[in-house]
Specification:
- The protein is about 35% helix and about 15% strand.
- It is of the alpha/beta class and about 650 residues long.
- The chain folds into two domains: about 375 residues, Histone deacetylase domain (Arginase, Chain A, 3-Layer(aba) Sandwich); about 210 residues, Roll (Hypothetical upf0131 protein ytfp).
- Strand 4, helix 7 and strand 5 form a beta-alpha-beta unit.
- About 50% of the residues are buried.
- The structure holds N-(4-aminobutyl)acetamide and zinc ion.
- Zinc ion (ZN) binds next to loops.
- The site of zinc ion (ZN) has 7 residues, from loops.
């Protein structure tokens, strides 16, 4: 298959491509649908074919990796597992073994696919290192970056990128001493991070959704304070997003203010990209919105290093159209025979600047260039509410916002031409909205009363959940809802429920207890609630923010069926938000035919509060005065009465 670069054109870049349909023989044993399925690489291959790319590249055939190379990063145990798992003698045990691991399936084709995936990256990496190829893209599966030394994980069997990285370092005649790994898959590259934790020859950079350790793979491995150890200290860089919906502007800001300055200093001999495309717009797992243009910009900026020696290895990416379009955009960048077109109009999130600042601070002892202050105007610009739409011309343009746009503009000027052809099939606005549809439009037609008993009784605080932002006393800003229309009506009501205060600190308010409402009513108690009439779509966004959980944009957390069962059973505990403290949606009756819903802890949480397993704790001053302010604003209570009500709720035994 070794083929056909157009040998007539002298200075065309030699770009290697590897694909092998044997990697399609790895699929779920029961034929169940799975995001990591054979169609992924098939879709990419077909796309490149129909775009006429294959003729312009050097197409190589895949080879299985040899055990000795895999052994550089995996245990003997692991190698034996992956080698044997597809053989007949494992037929009866295979599924039981897979179940022991986190997000792993095996079938008869898994072993061969895993060896081909690793072998393909080895093959192109060596050719790029030698200069036989300028760059390459390995279109492989299963992916690799979650696979650890002794454990397949997160759809990954062999850590393909790590295997290739080790080979390049170990074959001394290749003259590769320093390798930059850029992991832009939406998930943290936990496996790769661990494999080079102590190794200063490998600069591992991962940008990923993190959400304070709640996003897959949960835990704190992806935190920005994980910087490597021993001689490897400072050579592990994590950029952990606080929320979903990150897009081109967020990624490019991280490139400009973290990755590129460090990479300049590091000066790699070759760059390997763990190229997952699950941060792409429309991806069902990622919930981010990077466009093909965004990926091509990120890649373009990396081509300035190591004389453009770049090896890309596919990781995640689960929306077939976004995946194929993004890979196509990248291969066109590698081929370098077409100027980049497109633009990023949105600004980065406020949280993005916060994350960038934190990363720079953590790493500046190792990379002095990061000690330079970010331009002050970048830091202090107004926290924008969630900006998904790229045509947000009505977003208030304080001067801070202008500066950021100009800065990004400048950064990309040399390669940008106005308007996007690269967003083929990813016409920004339509596609961005497509992630939220159809459930959003469906649920936007139903109104509910969101009944609040805590700080949300204070209207300006509640509006943070709708418009985004931060009020007095809050430690961190809220993202806001996608639909930013204010509540249609506000009213106050009393209910025969017990208000109490539990937990001893929160991310939003800092130390002190926060309000909970006992999900069952009882005739002795009386609670004052402020009701906001919002759409069920907005209620979903509020629920997610209340539970500081990941924004999985592909489906609602509380849909019409859930509403129905809440109304029948009085409450419904939402499994997807189970780590949150307010995941129990309680139906409190209706007002003018519109259901009243509140969110609080579950009955079993109440038992835990009673038994002392969870702390009961009075509210801190600031939080309590927010509550009193809210109650007084509702005009049902005077200030003294409100204070007495809060005091009683925080002192009376449950
Ligand atoms: C390679 C990759 C994702 C695993 C998600 C498991 N893995 N829930 O994207
Ligand atoms: Zn991923």
């Amino acid at each position: 298959m070794e083929s056909n670069s157009d040998s007539t054109t002298e200075n065309r870049r030699r770009v290697g491509l590897i694909y092998d349909e044997r990697m399609c023989r790895h699929f779920t044993p029961d034929g169940e649908g799975h995001p990591e399925n054979p169609n992924r690489i098939l879709a990419i291959w077909n796309k490149l074919q129909s775009a006429g790319i294959l003729q312009r590249c050097v197409v190589l055939s895949a080879k299985e990796a040899e055990d000795e190379y895999i052994a550089a990063v995996h245990t003997k145990n692991h190698i034996d597992l992956i080698k044997n798992i597809s053989s007949k003698k494992f037929d009866s045990r295979r599924e039981r073994i897979a179940a022991k691991y986190n997000s792993i399936y095996f079938n008869e084709g898994s072993s061969e696919a895993a060896y081909l995936a690793a072998g393909s990256v080895l093959e192109v990496a060596e050719k790029v290192a030698k200069g036989v190829l300028d760059s390459a893209f390995a279109i492989i599966r299963p992916p690799g970056h979650h696979a650890e030394e002794n454990e397949p994980m997160g759809f990954c069997l062999h850590n393909n990128v790590a295997v290739a990285t080790s080979l390049l370092l170990n074959k001394r005649e290749l003259g590769i001493n320093k390798i930059l790994i850029v992991d832009w898959d939406v998930h943290h590259g936990n496996g790769t991070q661990k494999m080079f934790w102590n190794d200063p020859r490998v600069l591992f950079f991962s940008v990923h959704r993190y959400e304070f350790g709640r996003f897959y793979p949960a835990g704190d491995d992806g935190s920005h304070i994980k910087i490597g150890e021993g001689p490897g200290a400072g050579y592990n860089i994590n950029v952990p997003w606080e929320n979903g919906w990150c897009g081109d502007a967020d990624y490019l800001a991280v490139w400009d203010h973290v990755l590129i300055p460090i990479a300049k200093d590091f000066s790699p001999d070759i760059v390997i990209i763990s190229a997952g495309f699950d941060a792409a717009v429309g991806d069902p797992l990622g919930g981010c919105c990077v466009t093909p243009y965004g990926y091509s910009m990120m890649l373009k900026k990396l081509m300035k290093f190591a004389q453009g020696k770049i090896v890309m290895a596919l990781e995640g990416g689960y929306n077939l159209a976004s995946l194929a379009n993004s890979v196509l955009a990248c291969v066109e960048v590698l081929l370098e025979d077409k100027p980049l077109v497109g633009s990023s109009e949105a600004d980065p999130f406020e949280s993005t600047w916060r994350v960038i600042e934190a990363v720079r601070e953590e790493l500046s002892p190792f990379w002095p260039i990061l000690k330079d202050e970010l331009p002050r105007k970048l830091i202090i610009r107004q926290a924008p509410p969630i900006q998904i739409s790229t045509s947000d011309s009505d977003v208030e343009n304080d001067n801070g916002t202008h500066i950021v746009s100009e800065d990004l503009e400048k950064a990309i000027q040399d390669v940008v031409q106005p308007f996007s052809e690269l967003r083929v099939g990813v016409n920004s606005n339509d596609d961005v909205n497509a992630i939220y549809a159809p459930w959003r439009s469906e649920l936007s037609n139903t109104d509910v009363w969101y009944a609040t008993f805590g700080s949300n009784m204070c209207k300006s605080r509640f509006l943070c959940y709708i418009e985004g932002g931060q009020v007095e006393g809050m430690r961190k800003p809220c993202a806001g809802s996608l639909d930013k229309s204010p509540p249609k009506e506000i009213l106050w009501k009393t209910f025969s429920h017990r208000l109490f205060f539990g937990r001893d600190q929160t991310k939003t308010w800092g130390p002190g207890g926060v309000a909970f409402l006992h999900p069952e009513s009882n005739s002795q108690d009386k609670a004052y609630l402020c009701l906001y009439r919002i759409t069920l779509e907005q209620f979903n966004d509020v629920l997610v923010q209340e539970n500081i959980s990941s924004f999985d944009t592909s489906s609602p957390v509380f849909d019409l069926t859930d509403l129905d069962s809440a109304m029948k059973k009085r409450y419904i505990s939402l499994e997807v938000l189970k780590r949150g403290w307010y995941h129990n949606v309680v139906y409190m009756g209706n007002e003018n035919g519109i259901p009243i819903l509140t969110m609080t802890c579950t009955l079993s949480d109440v038992e835990s509060f009673k038994s002392g397993k969870f702390p009961l704790c009075a509210p801190a001053k600031e939080y309590a005065s927010t509550l009193v302010g809210g109650l007084v604003g509702g005009k049902l209570l005077s200030e003294d009465e409100a204070m007495a009500y809060i005091l009683e709720a925080s002192t009376k035994p449950l």
